[in-house]
Design brief:
By secondary structure, the chain is α+β, with helices and mostly antiparallel strands. The protein has a single domain, classed as Pyruvoyl-Dependent Histidine Decarboxylase, Chain B. The protein is 26% helix and 40% strand. It has a five-stranded mixed beta sheet. The protein has a four-stranded antiparallel beta sheet with strand order 3-7-6-8, with helices on one face. The longest helix is centred in the middle third of the chain and has 19 residues. The protein is flat and about 50 Å long.
Length: 184
Amino acid sequence: MESHFVPRQMFFTKGVGKHRENLQSFEEALRDAGIASFNLVRVSSIYPPQCRIVSRRRGLEQLNPGEIIFCVLADSRTNEPNRLVGAGIGLAVPADQNKHGYIAEHHGFGMTQRICADYVEDMAATMLARTQGIDLDPDTAYNERKDIYRAKGLVVKTRAAVQTAEGDKNGLWTTALAAAVFIL
């Protein structure tokens, strides 16, 4: 049975916002990411079979202001000067495009962009591996696990969209945001 409610495309976006009000800093981050004009519905972590990743520009061209859109969203906020905030979205796509993949999100403090990207890619790949019956020691280094996943033909690609920001030196609220946006 074919469902018409399965996303056919997805794009990544990210942004930063600063404002004296917490909610306004989030709104500014949404603006920076290009998704402030939509009604966002947060969804969990499944990347649909045969879904295509498109550029942010191409994805936004297909959407209309006020439209309800589904997304996996990560955001982190602080009003502490110089505190590092980060938000990341990781994707693991299986070798078989007729199977679903996984999207992982993380929001936190103190991680650099590279460390956060590795972290969310690892989470997504680990979730995908578990659906294939592969359980690995979580203390094994991510690069080692990546090699095992690839050797078993499990993961074709992983990808991450990460935004980090340093808390405003004057104590304004600072929001880092990353999202995977679905297009039906």
